[in-house]
Amino acid sequence: MRLMVPHPGHFPALKEIVAAKEAYGLSEVEEVYMGGSPEVMGSGRGVLHAPLLDEIREQTEYAHQHRLKMNIALNSPCSGGHHLTFEGYKIFEWYFDALNNAGVDGVIVAEPYLVELLRDYPMKTIVSCLAYVDAPQRARFFEELGADVITVDTNINRHFDLLEAMVKEVNCEIKVIVNEGCLYRCPFRYSHYNLASHLSSLDQPKSPLFAPDFYFDKCINIRLRDPAQLIKSAWIRPEDMSEYESIGINSFKLSGRTKAVNWIINCMLVYSRRSYDGNLLELLDCPQMLRYMFYIDNRQLDGCIAQWKSCSKHCHECGYCDDLTGEVLTVIK
């Protein structure tokens, strides 16, 4: 099992992550990732600290000294077409050259054009989950463009038939995100990440610095009215990672680079140990505020993966997750 860990971007956080990895002997933790420069491109999340190139070089050297690979996220699903202009091409060529010279190991992108552009560099090309790779054929397309690693669309985390077929279809590495708590088949997902990509970018002068997050508010509201949606989300319990290894997926990613470093370290420990006693919502990147409203006993979910592996995902016919919610979820008063 190989684990990729989120990093908020500032050097003290990286040092804390490294210290925890070494103190607890977490050999599974092989990679970290952080946001790149918003002047070049936004990403799927806000950037708490945007490291300059000198910082990226310094942090990459430190990571390598402690047997960690460093990846940079430039996974905005929208750049307003700027990347396709000659000016945009020259900017990305310059930035990829700079990242490569800084020793960066991999670049995380969602835009197919950038996947192809990265073929000319020794850095790994890591396809983001925001490329929405949800089928073997789509995985094949991205591999042919130049992908070394494909992070699958989290919506198919429990579609084992698709995951297994994808592993067989391509030669590149298949990675799954374990602790994203977004709505299953969320109707806001594309629009929400499009908004995030613009808000996290400084290269588009017409992009607002702030906008009300309609999508997040709707997302919270849906789960407050229907808590079963929390169970239907495509998270993966620490105890269930072996089910993915059995079909050839050995690469796992933790979500949460906008979170506090102590939370990141706790998740890193839990998933490395493959065991957790407590409220499952404490491990989920989104939406964290619901951990103060609901308690989902992780231990009561033992064995549920068997149902989810074989489930048709026709929720209106099944009812399993609705019934399970009544058994494992408690409202915190």
Describe this protein's structure.
With 333 residues, this protein is of the alpha/beta class. The protein has one domain (2-276): TIM Barrel (Alpha-Beta Barrel). 40% of the residues lie in helices and 13% in strands. It contains 14 helices and ten strands. It has helices at 11-23, 53-65, 86-101, 112-117, 136-145, 160-169, 189-199, 214-225, 228-232, 241-245, 261-273, 304-310, 315-318, 320-328; strands at 2-6, 29-35, 69-74, 106-109, 124-127, 149-151, 173-177, 251-253, 294-296, 329-331. It has an eight-stranded parallel beta barrel. Strands 9-10 form a two-stranded antiparallel ribbon. Strand 6 (149-151), helix 6 (160-169) and strand 7 form a beta-alpha-beta unit. Helix 1 (11-23) runs parallel beside helix 2 (53-65). The longest helix is centred in the first third of the chain and has 16 residues, at 86-101. The mean pLDDT is 92.
Major sheet attributes: 8 strands, parallel, barrel
Oligomer type: single chain
Assigned CATH class: Alpha Beta
Bulk shape: globular
CATH architecture assignment name: Alpha-Beta Barrel
CATH homology superfamily name: Aldolase class I
Name the helix and strand elements from N-terminus to C-terminus, one letter apiece: EHEHEHEHEHEHEHHHHEHEHHHE
End-to-end separation in angstroms reads 38 Å
**How much helix, percentage-wise, in residues?**
40-55%
Task: Give the radius of gyration.
Answer: 19 Å
Any idea how many domains?
A: 1
Q: What's the total count of β strands?
A: 10
How are the strands of the biggest sheet laid out side by side? Answer: 1-2-3-4-5-6-7-8
Instruction: Return the structural class.
Output: alpha/beta
According to CATH, what is the topology? TIM Barrel
Mean pLDDT value: 92
Residue stretches low in confidence (pLDDT < 50, at least 5 long) are: none
User: How much strand content do the residues show?
Assistant: 5-15%
Tally of helical runs: 14
